[in-house]
Batch of 2 targets.
Target 1
Amino acid sequence: MTGRYVLQITPAAGCRAPIATFSFPMDAAAGGAAPKPGTQVVLTGDPGGLEAEFLNEAQALRGGVGTTADGALANESLRLWIRVIASGPVVRANDGRGEVRSGTMMGYVAFGGAAGDEGELGSCSATHTFVLGAR
Amino acid sequence: MTRATALLALALSALAGPASADALRVRANEAFAPCLRPVLTAFTNETGRATVLDVGAPDPPRGAALVVGDDSEMTRLLEGGRADVRTAADLGDLPWVTVAPPGTQVRSLASVTGARVAVLGGAAGRVARESLAGLPPGSLVVSRDAAELSSATYALVPRSLAGPGDHVRADVTPLVATAAVVVGSPDEAGARRLLAFLQGPHARAVLGACLDARPTAVGATGVAAPYATAVADWWVPACSLARNGYNNPAELVGPPDALNLGGRDNYRGLMSLGQGGWVTLDMGATVVNGPGADIRIYQATSNEEVTVYASASASGPFTLLGLREPCGRRGLGTFSNFCEFDLAAGPLAEARFLKIEDGEIYPCLSGDTLTEGADIDAVQALNFR
């Protein structure tokens, strides 16, 4: 998986998130080969602000997705804080690259206004879903 | 302000200037500040040394010589060496309480309707906010303003910030007041003196009015419990491997032996897991579901979270025992802190292999230390055959 992607995170229903799905523009690149091959997926323009470090398993990705204490501003103009272990099968996108259409994320998410505090619009630990789609 | 008042203020500030400059600067979060004020007064009375208490998140220290914060706020300070991990001392626990109007007998703030609930902001309030996940959107008031929190009709706050109303102890992990000396402070000697005072009997007595004594840890069972004997598999992202300084999974084998050797990022005996990295360990014995916890993880920095899975086989399948559990209990006499897990959480009757995964999940590219991720020292089976 390389190039430009959109990460869409849908918090679990029990989290009562202010919107159904948070989306972020991301860039993917190979994340090294040793001790095992990986994939690094980072927020476009602020790579350390929202970062996924995945282990490439057999036709699947698995790894940690996190933000700093500042969270990350979604396309929907709300801020998301996240610390999760994500996994999902990799399938072929229309342009031939890989993408994840039905992934799960276990862990913590919190919501806030664009300039707001962590969790002011709610937070929870649960199993969420995500899509990492080619763009 | 009249001209006379302005002149008086100017004169007072000129008088106060030298004293402030000489004062020992302490920074503590909003919850611990009310607990510290009387003990700082006692310190001044006893030593003649003035102190200034800045209130706010301890990271960054903003010129303070001594910082006091919850474990969750101190992690990056201690991990990055800006505060001296060898000086880190627990001053006590601060429980959370719910506040509600007198006589309302509210059992859970998550069930409150039609009213807003105030809760502490920042990292120290993260777990408390999460406990209110059932509230309707827009019901939370997240604040670090002590006055706002203590005047709220409904609130979930550390006990020191509770205002009028009925108080009920909340089922939220208490804050842990951790004090540490800021490295490179021009008043490091003063900070060390104050820290020693804070751990003395007089200060403990004063602090005891606000903080609870930390519970004594339960030691290992009478029978020598086995530690991990071999690394079966591991993975750490390449980004973390390139930036961290402690990448050897063999450090998890054997009993806890991690140490800070002084100075920033200077350790031995641990492995940093980086962003979401993990190690699978062969315990060399069968861990069984017995009384109490079955597994103990020794983790070196604050209460960084770990996730633990167990399996009968090195290749899995692995069963989740605990997700992103804070790993920061003290009291075993080791440099490392610890946390415990139970096979019953799986549920599993037994397991031979344990997978220990970073739960901090801090973005690798934003890291600024050689020890990003949970720092694992050792893994121990408490019930085994």
Target 2
Amino acid sequence: MDLSNTDTTKTKTKAPQQITIDGQSLSFTPGETIMQVAERAGISKRIAHFCYHPSLSIAGTCRMCAVEVEKVAKLMTSCSTPATNGMVVYTNSEKVKASRNGVMEFLLANHPLDCPVCDQAGECSLQEYNYEYGPSTSRFGDSEEKRVFENATTLKLSPLITLNMNRCIHCERCVRFCAEITETHELLMVNRGHHKELTLADPSKGLTSDYQGCLADVCPVGALTFNDFRFKKRVWFLKQHPSICDGCSRGCNIEVHSEDDIVYRYTPRFNQEINKHWMCDEGRLSYHRGHDKNRIVAPYFEGHECEWHTLLADFTKSLKSSKSALVVFTTDATSEEVATLTSLLPQLHKGGPINFRYISSTPDENPNENQDENQDQLLRRKDKTPNRQGVASKLSPISEADFQSFNDLVIIFKGSTSKLPRLAFSSSKHLYLWGVFLLEDLENIRASNPNIRGVLPGVHTLEKSGSYTNCDGITQTFTAAIRPPKLCVPVERILSKILTTVTAEGEAK
Amino acid sequence: MSTGNIKTTNVSRPYTWKERLYLLTIPKGFLVTLRYFIRGFFLRKSNTISYPEERRNYSERFRGMHFISLDENKLENCTACYLCQTVCPAKCITITAEERDPKENPVGVAKEKRPKAFDIDALRCCFCGMCEEACPKDAIKMSRNYELAVHTREMAMYDLKHLSREVKNRG
């Protein structure tokens, strides 16, 4: 180590410093560890690891990431060894493989063989590394002799998280997550060695943070599992699709896990600018709203379900015949939907310009809540709609007085599953709802205005493509993760249908 | 795919004069009939069996109607791990998992997960036995019962109740 240290001082001002990993020469900035260099180069998969997590502090507890460094007698843990100039690292030598095999053997000595029951099976680091490096048999005797934590085999740490301590490999990622990311210090390890056990700092309270789902994410094994996904599906059936969470104005990057157009969970997708590796529980559970049984999934005209062409004929007629028209967007519409409607609807409306406005989708039971600001120190925002910035940049907001002044044709466009804001109409003659609505929404609207003429069922975030601009002004695009219900169609399809009909009629005349 | 290049060759040969003389083959055929008549009528030997009074003994590893084995507490051994569903080439197994009621679970964590529904579409099943091979709990097995005939298609959809019937020594 001394040798390499002197090297560092010598070359400080000269060419960038080089490290060789598996024969691949990589430059680094002093202070980076071997693992970080490998990660930047995209070859961190070669180094097996449990306790290292790019967004958490370095612990060096698992010893799985040990690599061979030339001129060093023993193996070095790549997560905690700083890279030095001229360092030559081998990540897959016989010595390293033997070390990994040894680590795996000790980890598996007490790990229960319950992969068939365990929800992590299929995305479990322990499973993967055992397949690659581990011993296929155990020298530690029968499974009856394995360590069992009687009180923590199926312990509900909170309504969201279940702990199975028998499966824990003591990487302490969860402890570090609670200490460093949420700063709630809710979990800690007590005792040592064989008896080391994960416990709640305050068992009477349980886990209380709003980011508990991340604990199940960071856990490399099935010790901490997310109750909402528990026993729902085996992970290898799920199809992953990158998307954006529409639970609040943060716009966390997510992966949608679905099978046969049914979403089973969201997992966070790494984005250094926005959410890093995390997402909140509220957003994580927001996929349920897309599968709401009360969602209106068929065209609806004057109190009854109807065919699309009946509704569209009436809708086109109202557009043509009305003198004044108001289109109100909620702030969970995509920027594309706003652009499409603002450019194409005026072509159909003959009675003068259409007023396009927006209304914030956040329910304003408490008026102070209706401002967009951080809800906590990490990710959550008070505005529970994904695209306020994108919509507000094109349109102006609507006030109650504005609502009163329009009384002919009003179209409410709601782009996704966020809650319906309080709408204050006086007596618009024709009221159309366009987008994603629930039966409750209909009831609520009916309370202030009974003239709901039609509902045009639309598609929500997971079922369409588009873009949202988040609270920091970052515009992110996404594509459809699942197919919408049969009769729910995106805006552009409805508009093209109307426009072709209108053009055909015009030509016939 | 074009089939224009395929040639068919006629491999039949001309009959010999013996074969053309049909008179010879007629008594030959009568002799066969007579032989079987004597075997059956006088010697009482038969090539068929009187099913269902008599049954053929199939091999020990015959793969017949599926069942799910039970443990000493009469709980099904299946933990709904979905491996059989994953491996099934005919996609005839459909499982829904749930958490077992802790009160009815004397075994603890090993049986905390159970199948809420376990359906096998026997009409689609090809009896390859891969489910049996994949099962880590020796839960799904194939009995030696080969009487699979049913009156309706619905009856060929084996549900959990039917599958967890008691089968001793694989039937």
